[in-house]
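lol forgot to send this yesterday, sorry. struct tokens for the thing we talked abt
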């Protein structure tokens, strides 16, 4: 007779001294017959993430035609080719209050709010933060608000504060949520406040408990646990390498105190920076530590440079000639980071589906091209637990301004995630055809 296996939770939490490591969704709870009726009815969680690129895209290269496996993608989107059946490439949506010059267009990309000029900051609560509040009691971290470019202060010549140009997530109308620019601190937020103080790996603290759980679950769950712990360790090692380099740099700088803690840094390699941030989002979603995330890859009026692309000038400067090869290479690079996150979530099995299938990942910019907010470039990936049809090229450009509101899309997505609002931003209507 086979010995009875210990009861395990669909979401196992391994705890160490000041840290906790959540394992991904496990199928063994149901297979072992240990699941309660209430647990059996628990819906697999839905997640939302937004990746933002400032200063628009390269219009001649940003397009899609057809649906499903027959979908064709412009060169800017070619890294998404393996996921065509998981996409909605949406053309023609319009952010009414963001139609104009710089600064004004970014601060309301997720709220549709009418931003105020001058020294008094006034915007609106962003839809990611509406969702974060909706899921607040169900997750450890209500939302991840991450960025790869330092915010800037002052005013644009339009007299809009540059605060608007630097932030897309707003918890209240008067102030944005501070962006977490340090990958190490974002990682720590998922695993516990003591994580950064450990001399070794966080997995050292929970290894024995993880081994016990591994022996209790199915073969497929054992593989899932092994893959997840490997991913955690690899991400942790990359962060530790970054922090060691930062500590060495600090020693060379007499202005930095030797006792500085934590020795966290921002990667000088922008490719590594973006990948670390997307990996942290993937870990958060895989373990249900958070269901909402935003990643500002580059802000409006971006000063980011890309020497690895053989591009000499800054991001924003190239946006004014956005049909050129330099800007096209910048846009392609950012879409590749989005495709990387899509790929990560698509590889994470969650019951009969994947984490991608239960998520909605949005890639968006505030401009179609320089200073033109008449439409926003936007791609969605993932099916939100079967509530969102995918594999489509959708065009709203000729629908009329009242029928192509960006905020109508947000109302629709929030509906599908269990948050029904009578109005959001400039819209009371859901977007037709979604």
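and heres what i got for the seq, position by position
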């Amino acid at each position: 007779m086979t010995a009875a296996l210990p009861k395990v939770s669909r979401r196992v939490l391994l705890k160490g001294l000041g840290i906790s490591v959540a394992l991904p969704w496990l199928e063994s709870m149901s297979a072992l017959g240990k699941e309660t009726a209430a647990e059996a009815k628990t819906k697999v969680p839905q997640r939302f993430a937004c990746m933002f690129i400032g200063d628009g895209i390269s219009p001649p290269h940003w397009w899609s035609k057809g649906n499903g496996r027959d979908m064709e993608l412009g060169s800017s989107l070619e890294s998404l080719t393996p996921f065509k059946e998981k996409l909605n490439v949406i053309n023609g949506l319009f952010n009414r209050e963001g139609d104009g010059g710089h600064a004004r267009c970014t601060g309301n990309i997720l709220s549709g709010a009418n931003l105020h000029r001058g020294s008094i900051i006034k915007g609106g609560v962003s839809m990611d933060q509406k969702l974060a509040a909706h899921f607040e009691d169900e997750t450890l971290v209500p939302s991840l608000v991450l960025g790869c470019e330092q915010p800037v202060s002052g005013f644009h010549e339009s007299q809009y504060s540059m605060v608007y140009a630097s932030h897309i997530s707003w918890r209240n109308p008067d102030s944005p949520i501070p962006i977490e620019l340090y990958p190490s601190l974002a990682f720590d937020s998922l695993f516990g406040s003591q994580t950064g103080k450990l001399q070794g790996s966080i997995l050292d603290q929970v290894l024995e408990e993880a081994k016990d759980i591994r022996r209790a679950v199915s073969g497929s769950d054992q593989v899932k646990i092994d893959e997840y712990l490997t991913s955690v360790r690899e991400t942790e090692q990359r962060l530790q390498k970054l922090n060691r380099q930062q500590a060495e740099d600090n020693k060379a700088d007499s202005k930095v105190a030797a006792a500085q803690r934590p020795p966290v840094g921002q990667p000088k390699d922008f490719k590594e920076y973006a990948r670390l941030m997307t990996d942290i989002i993937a870990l958060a979603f895989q373990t249900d530590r958070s269901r909402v995330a935003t990643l500002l890859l580059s802000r409006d009026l971006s000063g980011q440079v890309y020497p690895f692309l053989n591009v000499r000038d800054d991001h924003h400067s190239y946006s004014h000639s956005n049909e050129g090869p330099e800007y096209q290479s910048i846009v392609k690079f950012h879409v590749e980071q989005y495709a990387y996150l899509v790929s990560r979530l698509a590889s994470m099995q969650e019951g009969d589906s994947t984490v991608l299938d239960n998520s909605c990942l949005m890639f968006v910019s505030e401009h179609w091209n320089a200073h033109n907010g008449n439409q926003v470039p936007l791609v969605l990936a993932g099916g939100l637990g079967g509530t969102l049809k995918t594999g489509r090229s959708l065009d709203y450009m000729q629908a009329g301004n009242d029928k192509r509101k960006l905020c109508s899309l947000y109302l629709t997505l929030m509906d599908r995630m269990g948050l029904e609002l009578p109005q959001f931003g400039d819209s009371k209507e859901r977007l037709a055809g979604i």
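The two ends are 53 Å apart (CA to CA). anyway ping me if u want another try
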